[in-house]
Design goal:
The chain is an alpha+beta fold. It contains 2 helices and 5 strands. The chain has helices spanning about 55-65, 70-85, and strands spanning about 1-10, 10-20, 25-30, 35-40, 50-55. Strands 1-2-3-4-5 form a 5-stranded antiparallel sheet. The protein is elongated and about 60 Å long. The protein starts with a strand and ends in a 5-residue tail after the last helix.
């Protein structure tokens, strides 16, 4: 995936994302740290999103967790087991 970061003065930071298949979307992080997903369509003006989805902080966390290979709790469990192994306390 190709990701480009652009500062939008007075608004926040926009991350433009392009997949290998050529699909485009963006993530706007505004000055209040709120996230918005911006969906683009190739037939439209490339700078104007077709749809904007505004996410509260907890919603953004839930979407991020869904997009990970493994959930945060699964990754934490693996790290805890590995730490126990390294410290000789593995059961």
């Amino acid at each position: 995936m190709d990701i480009a970061r652009t500062t939008v003065p007075g608004v926040g930071v926009l991350h433009h994302c392009s997949t290998r298949a050529g699909q485009r979307f963006g993530v706007m992080v505004d000055e209040t740290d709120r996230r918005s997903l911006l969906i683009y369509e190739s037939s439209d003006d490339p700078d104007v999103p077709r749809q904007t989805i505004v996410l509260d902080h907890d919603e953004a966390d839930q979407v991020a967790d869904l997009l990970r290979d493994r959930s945060v709790s699964d990754r934490l469990a693996v790290l805890e087991r590995r730490l126990a192994e390294l410290s000789g306390k593995a059961s």
